[in-house]
Amino acid sequence: MKKPQAESMLLEVKGLSKRFGGIKAVEDVSFGIQEKGIISMIGPNGAGKSTFINVVSGVYMPDAGEIYFAGEDVAGLPAHTMASKGLSRTFQLEELFINLTVLENVLVGCHTGGSSGILSCGFSLPSARKEERRLRDESMECLREVGIAEKACNTISQLPLGERKLVGIARALAMKPKLLLLDEPAGGLAAHEVERLVQLIYTLKERGLTLFIVEHNMPFVMSLSERIVVLDEGKKIAEGIPDEVKKNERVIKAYLGEEVA
Amino acid sequence: MKLMSKISVVWVFLIVAIIVVPLTSSSYIIGVMCFVAVFGALGIGMGVLMEQAGIFSLAHPTWFGLGAYISGILAVQGVTPPWLGSIVGAVCVAILSVLIGAPLLRLRGYYLACATFGLLLVVEISLAQLGSITGGHEGLMGIPPLTVFGFTFETDIHYYYLSWGLCLACLWFLYNLMGSRVGRAVRAFSDSEIAAGSMGVNVPAFKLKIFVLTAVMASLAGSLYTFYLRFTQPGIFGFPLLVELMTMIIIGGGRTLYGPLLGSFVVLWLRELIHIYLGKLLPRMTAEVDAIFFGVLIIIILVFMPGGLAGWVDRLLGFNRRVIEKATG
Q1: More confident residue, B85 or A259
Q2: Out of B182, B209, B328, whose CB is closest to A116?
Q3: Of A54, A56, B41, B119, which is most buried with the most CB atoms under 10 A?
């Protein structure tokens, strides 16, 4: 279903709501993400940021509202369909495949880039072998891009947290996404690791990728983002460029509490 | 590359050993080795399903039994020649496993185990009660031997090569599969369904695919088993076979592809040894000793070698990729 005014927007969300029993995790949230650039979502703990990302990426079904991706109505589609449409994401707790090597993790990200089925894979037909070589090259390229190509054959458990986050990003990049959702990419990272991450995010932006970042780390978000959406108790309370958001009274209240202001 | 050449050496060694063994062995050894291959083929599929795909299905003996009965009945009634009956059996099992797997695979963990265990009991009882077609409790008699293009498989040696051919074909197929795009998707969703889904893996579809594939392999093993024994009985495909397969997978190691085959070899030969030596010593106690022995062995393996014998052999030979490729990577 095409929608005319959504065409300039890569992702457009209208009146999105998600409830868990009596708890309204996300309530009537609307905004759009334009192509190319970095937009962030911030909010205190429990503001509904992760729920929002899970609804948009198809992990949860929305209770109400519309989601348009590249002009197409995608609300309620399952996660694997969203992935094949060009939306890729990382996870707050990495969710890496612990029984696979680093390279294999990224290769799973290449899943939609391949088409070999059970029989061609099982009989190891030339077409499947050729595809496998291509996917391996692509995956190594993604690992080089995030800077951990030398760890390709390690298991996930051998990596420190910072590098695990990078594997998650490499895995998401392997999908050749139009939109990359990063769920708390700087969470739990040391200062030098955050720096490395900022560099990487700039490189990705230069490449023309659209990024949507959900994050807690304020300096990180303020320095990177072109626009910021602020969520509190499931509702959007502010949206704008970083300097506007920083001065917004409701944002300050949400973060620091009533009395301090 | 070094790892690859090591693996090729093992393949060559395995195939040569399998070809040579019957030339120098008694028909007793050949007979036991036939069962090693059939249960190996069955266990490899079940190991992949349970340990690598994380699908805790207990219906494996059922697919084995249905393959055996369908091809057996078709051959007894003279509807199709045995070889065609085996294929018909595999197709029927494929269709049935799709119909049963599509709803049941929505369940996880113990719930799936309970549901598939129910299926196992239902099929076993049905086979016993449908006396006019299946021969009931007494079993299906008068099954003809397998014939392919005028060649009749009669002796143990014929079935030895046939069953090892099937077993190695299953091993080779799954070896290729689990290292490929499909196998990675399967191993990925057993770690995290949400992440695999977000990477574009259609998790329910891949669950069903691997479920049906291993069911078809079990069905082919069942057909071969029934034409080798020329007899089949409902009790063969019930709870005891399930316990037997679990024992093989735990002792051999399900995380490693060839583990259940190694488990099949070890379990069946240990049992033969118990029966040969204890049969003279304690003639009335062999069944009890057998049960206690394997019970204790399972506990020892679980405590000291959680990866099973295959996991231990892999470490010994340096097949553990994590160690090997770390040096090159």
Answers
A1: B85
A2: B182
A3: B41
Tokens, residue A8:
């300039």
Least CB–CB distance from B195: residue in A91, A101, A118: A91
Q: Supply the range of the domain harboring residue B180.
A: 2-328
pLDDT of residue B200: 93
Residues of B in contact with A97 (CB under 8 A): 187-188, 191-192, 195-196
Residues 6+ apart with CB under 8 A from B103: none
Q: At B141, is the secondary structure helix, strand, or coil?
A: coil
Confidence label for A258 from pLDDT (cuts 50, 70 and 90): low
- Encode pLDDT of B113-137 as tens digits: 999 999 999 999 999 998 888 888 8
Q: What is the average pLDDT value for chain A, to the nearest integer?
A: 89
Q: How far apart are CA A158 and CA A155, in angstroms?
A: 6
Q: For B192, list phi and psi in degrees, rounded to 5.
A: -155, 110
* Residue pLDDT, tens place only, A87-137: 999 999 889 999 999 999 999 999 999 889 999 999 999 999 999 999 999
Q: pLDDT grade, residue B329 (50/70/90)? A: very low
The mean per-residue pLDDT over the stretch B248-252 comes to: 94
How far is the C-alpha of A161 from the C-alpha of B86, rounded, in Å? Answer: 52
Within 8 A of A110 by CB-CB distance, chain B residues are: 181
Domain CATH number, residue B26: 1.10.3470
Q: How far apart are CA B114 and CA A197, in angstroms?
A: 47
List, as one string, the DSSP characters of B40-63: HHHHHHHHIIIIIS------HHHH
Selection from A36, A56, A1 nearest residue A211 by Cα:
A36
What confidence category does residue B323 fall into, taking pLDDT thresholds of 50, 70 and 90?
Answer: very low
CA distance A122 to A108: 17
- Domains in chain B, number: 1
Which residue segments constitute the domains of chain A, with CATH numbers given? 1-86+177-261 (3.40.50.300), 95-176 (3.40.50.300)
Which of B184, B206, B211 to mutate to test binding with chain A, by most A CBs within 10 Å of its CB?
B184
Question: Contacts of residue B307 in chain A, CB cutoff 8 Å?
Answer: none
Cα(B209)–Cα(B98) distance, rounded to whole angstroms? Answer: 8
Predicted local distance difference test score (pLDDT) of residue B328? 38
CB A210 within 8 A of CB A29: no
Hey, are the CB atoms on A104 and B184 less than 8 Å from each other?
Answer: yes
Return all residues near A34 (Cβ < 8 A) that are at least 6 apart. Answer: A8, A9, A10, A210
**So what's the ipTM on this one?**
0.89
Rounded CA separation B104/B98 (Å): 10
